[in-house]
Amino acid sequence: MPRILVIEDDEKMREALVQTLLKLGHEVAFEPNGRAGLERAAQWLPELVITDLIMPEKEGLETIVDLRRGHPAVRIIAISGGGRLSNSDFLDVAAKLGAQGTLAKPFTRDELKAAIAAVLA
Amino acid sequence: MPAARVLPESSEPKLDPSPLEQALQARRELESELVRTQRNLAARVAARTAALRTTNEKLYNEILERRKAERALRAAERKYRGFFENAAEGAYQSSAEGQYLSVNPALARLYGYATPGEMMASVGNIAEEIYLDPEMRRRFRDQIERDGEVRDLEYQVRQRGGRVLWISENARVARNRRGKVLYYEGTIRDITRSKEAEAEAARLEQQLLQAQKMEAVGTLASGIAHDFNNILGAIVGYAELAQDDLAPDQRGFGFINDLLAATQRAKQLVRQILAFSRQDPPAREVVRLGTVVREVAALLRATLPTTIAIGLELEEEDDRTVADPVQLHQVLLNLGTNASHAMRERGGRLAFRLEGVELGGGGRPRLGALAPGRYLRLQVSDTGQGIPPEIIRRIFEPFFTTKPVGEGSGLGLSVVDGIVRNHGGEIQVESTLGAGTTFSIYLAPHRPAP
């Protein structure tokens, strides 16, 4: 099963997501922001990063750009609850910057499974 | 002068006066009397002549005065005539019953006639042929007969040819000494332009207000949407994790399904709120309205109770418009769902009607901000309970809802309104309590480049 790094600042959202991924049988690590996430990615070398977009310290779009530069092989799924622009706008930008998958929050386990399967295929 | 005179008899008897002397004496007396009388007469003639001269002078002066007055009167009338004939404002005299006694050329022109004569011959009854609302004439008469005048009375009149004007009138009533009304007279000014400008200003203000409200909602929405979706994400995640520990036949499993269904509704609500904050224009493609209607009708058929019949009347063959099909779906689904709510007690008929209509130009009524021309009109009608008149103006306001707490966010119709306006269209509503409601959406037809 692939190693998945979760970068998400909302604690409850992060916990639920990590628990779900563990349940699905993945090996999981998590960080609360982009900077910590990039450090962890450099050491732990995950196959997949699931990252939130609007976060303190280092937000998701920048994190995606740095991940693509430092770890070209890593797969990325961007997740977002929307913000100043509408939901799809941020996720569209994330996709343009190199995220292979996007999920608008809230998403179900089935949607998550389908997205993971699609980017790792 | 007397012809004979009786002489007084002497008081002292004289002795033996001769008859000759007596005659002489009498003659002397007569002569002196005559002289006195002549003097008297001359004085009286002189006096009478002087009196006559004075009278003559007076008469002459009076004639002069009168001539002067007549001249002044003629000049005044000429002046008044000129004023009446050449005034830029319309002026008239009319009977209290509503027949014109005179009108000036300006009024004739204003009301669409070539000459005052033509207007006088054509208009038999002011209340019915000039006033747009004959009831207004009654109010005009009440006021002018009570106060003696009306000042700056504004009302609508119908021009020959049907065009409606706004006018402002000043008028007074003329009465005879016994107080009987002789006629009304007044001046009339065309204020159509300023009235239209006022209405336009009010409409723009209303639009601005609505836009500000939408903006506030949008700001609020985007502010909370992010956090709210994170919370919903955690709820969905934990709910599904909890379900992992339960067998599908356990009661808790079903409860969690209900919980997940509720989060789906919350998710939809956030999406709806976010629709406000979307800054970029929606997708634009050529859409066949009839196709969208059929799709939505099929979707509603699958979800609405069988007590509600769905009818389609798609008359317009060229039903193409340029729109965001997803948003049009949302509009029709929203209106259809509202309609079904209005009929859920007793059932009824939900009808979608599509037809081409001409708006504005050639005396046809204009609609909102729409330019005159051909439009596609899509109507969604129900036979439900109707919307009370006191709230019908507010139904497009964000957060305005008549549904019980938890059943409606009050965003549905404001989203519908926002979408239709974003498409350059108009939406109107007509409703009769107990009979039903019809929403009419006007969209410009697609015109392919030649």
What's this entry about, in short?
The complex is a heterodimer of chains A (121) and B (450). With 121 residues, chain A is an alpha/beta fold. Chain A is 47% helix and 21% strand.
Task: Explain what you see.
The complex is a heterodimer of chains A (121) and B (450). Chain A is α/β, with parallel strands linked by helices and 121 residues long. Chain A has helices at residues 11-23, 34-44, 60-70, 87-96, 109-120, and strands at 3-7, 27-31, 48-52, 75-80, 101-104. In chain A, α3 links the parallel β3 and β4 (75-80). In chain A, α2 (34-44) runs parallel beside α3 (60-70). Chain B starts with 18 loop residues before the first helix and ends in a 7-residue tail after the last strand. Chain B has 450 residues and is of the alpha+beta class. The relative contact order of chain B is 0.06. The radius of gyration of chain B is 47 Å and the shape is rod-shaped. Chain B contains eleven helices and twelve strands. In chain B, the strands form three sheets. In chain B, strands 2-1-5-4-3 form a five-stranded antiparallel β-sheet. A five-stranded mixed β-sheet of chain B has the order 7-9-10-12-11, covered by helices on one side. In chain B, strands 6-8 form a two-stranded antiparallel ribbon. The mean pLDDT of chain B is 85. In chain B, β4 and β5 (181-190) form a beta hairpin. The interface between A and B is medium-sized, with 26 and 29 residues.
